[in-house]
Design a protein that fits this description.
Layout (H helix, E strand, L loop, with lengths): L6 H20 L4 H8 L3 H14 L2 E5 L2 H4 L6 E5 L4 E8 L3 E8 L4 E8 L6 H16 L10 E6 L5 H14 L3 E5 H11 L9 E6 L3 E7 L2 E3 L30 H4 L1 H10 L7 H7 L2 H25 L3 E5 L7 H14 L9 E4 L6 H11 L19
Parallel strand pairs: 3-6, 6-7, 8-11, 11-12
Antiparallel strand pairs: 1-2, 3-4, 4-5, 8-9, 9-10
Helix pairs in contact: 1-3, 2-3, 5-6, 7-13, 9-11, 11-12
Protein name: Crp/Fnr family transcriptional regulator
Organism: Kibdelosporangium aridum
Family: Belongs to the ROK (NagC/XylR) family.
């Protein structure tokens, strides 16, 4: 689908979102009701409604004539729950996660497919398209999409723009792209473990370590989109070399690979985190205690700096449960300011692997006050 840009196109999209927003909150509504609540002229309103019906975003339903007395049944308008509206994609290191929601903000489906970390970008995008098509079973109305929200690993810069372009070409709509861990923080703060909280620190312990901050009810992106790189805080100046170029970063001791390497060096045999957790052996307990202590120390420093009310821990390593969380909490309590010790709630993430994709959808819908400091529009380049 070719999307036009410019002031008139932006005005029209604004009118479409106004009508869709009214229907989300008040459906069903008649055209007259929509005209009164929207402030749009009759001609404009009917034009917008016609376009939304043609795209499949809204449908008409006839009111029961028995409720109205004599005469022709009045038509009211409602959101079409079968019309695709928003797609969120998380291109994680070793998997692609996809979530599709309809115009009523109901999840149509979600899917995940693991892959090797070295899979080429164009192959990942092709995989995402296939997952979306499989979820929609061939019925997804791409004409009703407003944008695609995309999460990627690491800082978003020039490489992010290139990746955004390929996704835009594939789906034919604008793309909103951000760091996938920051998007997971956004999702947890809207629908997950920290829903409704104003000040949240999110940390994901996965193959990489990163996070996100909600400060004063708004997701903090930082200068050049570099907020949330908690995995690259130094915890051991004499430690291992990190992929970022630093030494002894938190990621070198608390990522999935770092914990497994330490476990195997201590004689452990489990091949993955699930096996490590279930082994119950001393080596597993020791490496988890060490990782949890390092994480707790970093969390304390971050809490002293930004003062969150809630800390949310996600990622595969969070599956370790008490063996990780108890030493984490002990280190946090030992190093946070005493006045803050009982004012911070430590919680486990609830949205799982699709948190980043859900955060991408939140970017597209852009209805959360958490996004008050974020650009309201997708990239302005035309789809080609």
């Amino acid at each position: 689908m070719q999307r036009r840009t410019g002031p008139l196109a932006q005005l029209r999209r604004g009118h479409e979102e106004l009508v869709l927003g009214l229907l989300r909150r008040n459906e069903p509504m008649s055209r007259g009701e929509l005209m009164r609540h929207s402030g749009l002229s009759r001609t404009t309103l009917y034009d917008i409604v016609g376009a939304l019906q043609a795209s499949g975003a809204i449908v008409t339903i006839a009111q029961d004539s028995g409720q109205r007395g004599r005469g022709r049944p009045a038509e009211t308008l409602t959101l079409n729950p079968d019309a695709g509206h928003a797609i969120g994609i998380d291109f994680a290191r070793r998997a692609t996660h996809v979530v599709v929601v309809n115009v009523a903000h109901e999840v149509v489906g979600q899917a995940t497919e693991p892959h090797n970390a070295d899979v080429a970008w164009d192959e990942r995008v092709e995989l995402a398209e296939r997952l979306v098509s499989d979820l929609a079973e061939g019925t997804l109305r791409l004409g009703a999409l407003s944008a695609v929200g995309v999460g990627v690993v690491g800082p978003v810069g020039d490489l992010g723009e290139q990746r955004s372009l390929e996704v835009r070409k594939r789906f034919g709509v604008p793309v909103l792209l951000d760091n996938n861990t920051r998007l997971a923080a956004l999702a947890e703060s809207i629908w997950g473990a920290a829903a409704g909280e104003q000040d949240v620190l999110y940390l994901r312990l996965s193959h990489g370590v990163g996070g996100g901050l909600v400060v004063g009810g708004a997701l903090h992106r930082g200068s050049h989109g570099l907020s949330g790189e908690f995995g690259h805080i130094t915890v051991d100046p004499t430690g291992a070399q990190c992929g970022c170029g630093g030494t002894g970063c938190l990621e070198t001791v608390a990522s999935v690979r770092a914990v497994l390497d330490a476990y195997h060096a201590a004689g452990g045999r489990a091949a993955d985190i699930s096996g490590l957790v279930n082994s119950g052996d001393t080596a597993a307990q020791d490496v988890l205690r060490s990782a949890g202590t390092h994480v707790g120390n970093v969390l304390a420093a971050l809490c002293n700096a930004v003062g969150p009310g809630v800390i949310v821990i996600g990622g595969e390593l969070a599956e370790a449960g008490p063996d990780l969380f108890e030493p984490m909490k002990q280190a946090l309590d030992a190093n946070i300011m005493p006045i803050s010790r009982n004012k911070v709630s430590l919680r486990r993430a609830t949205l799982g692997d699709v948190g980043g994709a859900l955060g991408g959808i939140a970017l597209v819908l852009h209805e959360s006050p958490l996004l008050s400091n974020y650009p309201a529009e997708p990239d302005s380049e035309e789809a080609t």
